Amino acid sequence: MGSKNNTASFRTRSPLSIFIVIVLCCFFYILGAWQRSGFGKGDSIASEITKQTDCNIVENLSFETHHNDVEIVAPSEPKAKKIKPCDVKYTDYTPCQEQDRAMTFPRENMIYRERHCPPEEEKLQCLIPAPKGYMTPFPWPKGRDYVHYANVPHKSLTVEKAVQNWVHFQGNVFKFPGGGTMFPQGADAYIDELASVIPIKDGTVRTALDTGCGVASWGAYLLKRNVLAMSFAPRDNHEAQVQFALERGVPAVIGVLGTIHLPYPSRAFDMAQCSRCLIPWTSNDGKYLMEVDRVLRPGGFWILSGPPINWKTYYQTWKRSKKDLQAEQNNIEELAESLCWEKKYEKGDIAIWRKKVNDKACQRKSASICKSRDADDVWYKEMDTCVTPFPEVTSTKEVAGGELKKFPARLFAVPPRIANSYVEGVSAESYQEDNKLWKKHVNAYKRINKLIGTTRYRNVMDMNSDLGGFAAALESPKSWVMNVVPTIAKNNLGVIYERGLIGIYHDWCEGFSTYPRTYDLIHANGVFSLYENKCNLEDILVEMDRILRPEGAVIIRDEVNVLNKVRKISGGMRWETKMMDHEDGPLIPEKILIAVKQYWVGSKGNRTSSDE
Fold first, then answer.
1. Is 240 left (phi over 0), alpha (psi -120 to 50) or beta?
2. Can you tell me the distance from the alpha carbon of 320 to that of 215, in angstroms, rounded to the nearest whole number?
3. % of residues, the chain, pLDDT over 70
4. Where is it found, in Gene Ontology cellular component terms (predicted)?
5. pLDDT tens digits for range 188-240
6. Sign of the torsion angle spanned by Cα atoms 234, 235, 238, 240
7. Is 553 in a helix, a strand, or coil?
């Protein structure tokens, strides 16, 4: 009987219990909705917690310079293998242009000044020290004219080039008055004369090439006219000339016009110059001028100032005969005509030619046309004695390869290589989408590091540039970007130049053609995934450290499994690092590793200022 009564009681209470549960559920649902609406305290609390745990807010990682006023504190022992500092004798080490190795190669045609990288067993597995007293370079534009002596402690050019106003030594700084061998009174007046013939002012000319650049004063003074020059010179007896250029905040690389193609695509530059560069233009059947023609855009300009121009005035100074100099100039004139160049100007020390926009009105005499070869496939390829053909056109007025808009409009306009379907897999639509993506990425970077976009990071490198979206999103007079296209990546460097940006081909299994401490910010998108099975990732990181300035910053965007390997290695490199989520959230497998290189300098032996 008792069991029966209990069952009945349960049945009578069951509907009531269910009703109470439903009422409570409704109540809490309404309460939750009220709080989420913004009127409840719970919303502000949740918001505050979200802010405290935001993965895109960097804590304990400073991007400011400290070495002038803060004592260097030794880092704690990293979990990864500690990479030791190199001896101070390697302070200016350039792996592929070292003097001792260079002297084992033939001097003929400047072979010994070309790239000669060490074999695997001879690579340095150590970190290059900064010289004692190293300081953060002067901010732009002051940095154009002044360099700390402690950063580049080499005075030889102040003696060798004193009359030509290359560089003067004053107190503890070098001063660059803007002079050059062919413009001792200053680059501005020289450029003004060029601008009387060449449309420099209106954005028609944006990219320029300076062969044998010295300390790159021509490129330095073109920057205020919104012209971006790629300058190169060999590492030779003119000690540290390219190092001075980069320390000033001017684009430059170590390079020479020898037997190997220049590491630039065809039709890259609006303007090129040789200002007493001493390149023997008529030697080897004109091969060197043919290489300039390859990289010069249809409609582009070539400037020659120096021998043999104005030989009647200088033949005694140059210690050469009138007959020899006149013959040399005649040969240059004939060669230029065979390249489809038209002479536009000769006055005093300057002569200017213009490459025709296509070959319809060109009467080639003797130059042979290069056959069946990609004109952009140039890495370690020997130059041939042949002329790169113009892209085909349908009318005499059409610009071969496509006409470019004036800068800055060309920065985001669809480049001709894409518009004409020369780039496989890239359409006008996908190109514009890529631009939007990189604007989003760069905005995220600026939230992480507020110094990006300021003069603090003047010299910037993008190690895997693709279409140049990163550089385009960052474009500003305050900085410039060296766009690197890896030799194993898709070859889009021609697109980058058509945007009015500059760049270079490179294989990251080797050392880059620059001095140590020449870049303020390095961006690496997908680099380590690209090279993971090609070469040692540690070698790439050590090379990044070599070219990065003390207290410079690194941004690495890659898959999380690769970044974990990179972070482990960098733990032994005197870098402060932090892993960040993708800007779209933690579920995206692509992550961002940011790093700051610590300030430390070399001292006697192998110990450094930050050794314990």
1. left
2. 27
3. 84
4. endosome; Golgi membrane; trans-Golgi network
5. 999 999 999 999 999 999 999 999 888 899 999 999 999 999 999 999 766 78
6. positive
7. strand
Q: How many residues does the chain have?
A: 612
- The one-letter amino acid at 109: N
Radius of gyration of the chain (CA): 30
The per-residue pLDDT for range 64-109, each reduced to its tens digit, is 665 543 333 334 444 679 999 999 999 999 999 999 999 999 999 9
| Inter-axis angle of helices 537-547 and 560-570, nearest 10 | 60
Answer yes or no: are the C-beta atoms of 376 and 266 closer than 8 Å: yes
Q: Which pair of tokens denotes residue 549?
A: 């300035």
Question: What is the rounded distance in angstroms from the CA atom of residue 244 to the CA atom of residue 255?
Answer: 15
The C-alpha atoms of residue 555 and residue 575 are separated, in whole angstroms, by: 12
* Cβ(209)–Cβ(219) below 8 Å: no
Would you give the DSSP letter of residue 212?
A: S
User: Which one, of 568, 562, 569, 564, lies nearest residue 541 by Cα?
Assistant: 569
Residue type (1 letter), 323: K
d(CA 170, CA 168): 6
Are residues 428 and 227 in contact, defined by beta-carbon separation less than 8 angstroms?
Answer: no
Q: Copy the structure tokens of residue 295.
A: 């990289």
**Cα 407 from Cα 226, distance rounded (Å):** 8
Q: Name the residue among 406, 431, 408, 435 with its Cα closest to residue 420.
A: 431
SS3 at position 228: strand
